Structure formats: C-alpha cells, structure tokens
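Notes from the pairing session

We agreed to fold both candidates in a single pass and log them together. This is the raw record for the first candidate, unedited. Please don't reformat it; downstream parsing expects exactly this layout.

Candidate A
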Amino acid sequence: MSYVDGFLLAVPKARLDDYKKLANTAGVVWKEHGALAYVECVGDDVPYGELTSFPRAVQATDDEIVIFAWVVYESRQSRDAVMAKVMADERLKGDWSTMPFDGKRMIFGGFQPFIEL
C-alpha cells in the first residue's frame, strides 16, 4: 500500500502567484526524486467553522487563502528516501523569511492509507 504526506497552509492572496511558482518547482522536484503523485489545491469551499475548520487550523486571516496539498509515495520507506533527496535539493533551498507563506502555521504529516479504491 502507498504512503501519503499531507500539507495544510495559509497563503496571502497577494502572494498566491508566488506560491504557485514555488509549488510547481516543488512538484517537479518531488516527482524527479520518486514521488508517485504531487497535488496542490486552493481552497474553494472552506468556510471558517465555529469550532474547527481548515482556515482555523492554520489561523488563516481574511487576506489569506487555504492550500491543501498531498504527495503520494510507494511506501513509507520510499517516502523517507524521497524526502531526504527533496530536502537536500538546491532548487528548494531558500530563506524561509521570504517564502510566500508562514511556515510556522503549516500543518503536515505522514499517513498510512487503510483503504485504496
């Protein structure tokens, strides 16, 4: 069965084009290093909930948009190998203070699927 990394973050609407450029580069890097799939989505129907919601999870403000992304790998072992290569890839090196999002509010984690249809 595959393995999935999931990401949730808030991007300032004014920097969305910058983020899309970064995401495109990241997708190319992940795929070159062995990811099976790389998907980035812009929030389209993500209301701010009373108790919980995607926007609340990343403390999104009115001038930000929620991004939901995931990467699929062959296995956890494959993910660990791919991630090591991705983190060492010079195309993704940069100053976090100039990134088009606040990395401190990004949520991410690895997931083991239990159903794949």
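Candidate B (folded immediately after A)
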Amino acid sequence: MNLFSSIAKLPLVALGFVAFMLPAQAQNLGDMTKDDLSALIEQIVDEKIENLLADTPKASAAQGRFGNAVEDYLMSNPQLLERMSVALQTQAQEAEIAQTRDTLMALGDRVHNDADQVVLGNPDGDVTIVEFFDYNCGYCRQAVANMMQLLEEDKNVRFILREFPILSQGSADAARVATIVNRNKDVSYMEFHTKLFQSRGQVDKARALEVAAELGMNPVEVELQMQDQSVTQAIGRTYQLADALSISSTPNYIIGNEVVRGAESFEGLKRRVDNMRECGETTCP
C-alpha cells in the first residue's frame, strides 16, 4: 500500500486538511500550477468520499495519472501529515472538553450536592473539588496525602469524596461500609478513610469492618446495614455520574466545569485551584 492509498483511508476531516494544505506548498511539482494541483486534490478527495459513502470502489483516472506526484510531495514534506495529526488531536480534545462542560451543566446539582457525599474542608469554600476514588487504587493512596496537604494550606477549598469502587468486590464492600460510616455523625469519616488507605494489602469487607470497630461502631450492625437499598442507591448515583462523564478509572476529579483525568500532585491541585480563582478555569491562558 503506498502513501497515497493510506491518505485515502484517513478520516474525512483529514482528507480535507490535506486538500487544503498541499496546494500552498506545491511549487516543486513540475509544470502544474497551484490551482491545477488544488483542483486535482479536490477531485481525488471528492471521488474518495463518494466511494466511501457508496461503499463501492471506483477507479480514479486522476489518481492514476497524478498519484505518484502527490505521494512524492508528501514524502518530501512529512511535516504536513504531522501537523495534520496534531490538528486533529487538538480538535478531538476540544470537542471532548466542550461535551464534558455540556454534560456537567445538564447534571446540575447532582455533581456537588448528594445526600451521601463526603464533604471535607470548607463547606462554603469558593472552589470545589470532587474526587472519584477506590480504596484499592494505588494512585488514590497518594491522592489522600495531596488532598490533606491542600486542605491544610488552603482553608477556602471544599473537597467532595465520591465512593467509586471499580477494582474488586473488596472495593465495593469497603465503599458500602464507608457509606454507613459517613452517615454516623459520631464517627470521623476522615479517620476511617485514612486508616483504610494505610492498610497493607487489599482492602476488603473484613478490613473495613475492623476499622469501623476501631472507631467505636458495632461491626455486626454495620454488616447488616451493608446491603440496605439506600446504600446501594448511594453508590449507584456515583456510578451514574461517572458514566455520564465517561469516568472509568480512579482517581478522577471534577474541578469547576472540567473533568481532570488521572492522578494530580499537590502542586497540580493547588495550581488548578489558584487558576479557578484567577480566571474561572483550571488552566488560564
């Protein structure tokens, strides 16, 4: 397969991009004028699009006559394909960001106000961070330290934790116990949270019940409550939120009208918070 054939199979946006860029650089293609080469490329692109839509192969006389010239040109100017690839990637990222913002707007109050969410820091803070986590996520373990440092240094951040168990049955059981712990106002959820992340090995139901007992809760009663429908619904609401935002890993964050995917260092979180205050976005121009 030659390079011309490969180009013909690029997405339609890519084909249009080549057709747009190539003629402007075409001084070295013999006696062809820029207008001639532009018309040729547009003809080839139109035929390829027609073939794709009709799903029937058609011979292209123009491709047969001038395909080698186009291929030679692109081989001599590979930076054009690289620039096209970067442009397409940027376009896709911008589309994803726009879609996420529309989704967050549609979700409205469900993002920051759920009866079973955990709220740490300043409940009236001027910047809110929502973290999706799993007790068996290694990156989430470091995220606890970053969160605690941020809350210690910045007294005007509202930090919301959402139980998002996706890695194992043990994670799901621990999330159920954590939901019950959070409902008990006589127990420190933050202490429970940090103790679980300090555990060696996998976090499971036994370990979660053990920590709950250390904090003064009756493990038998907690285990009986684990299958309560309201607990299932609480975790289910987080799953629904994550699904709407295409969140499928941990940790992930919602900051302002953006989803920050993947682990963030303390410095990264702090910078995003500062940017939110400065320009209303996690990244300022």
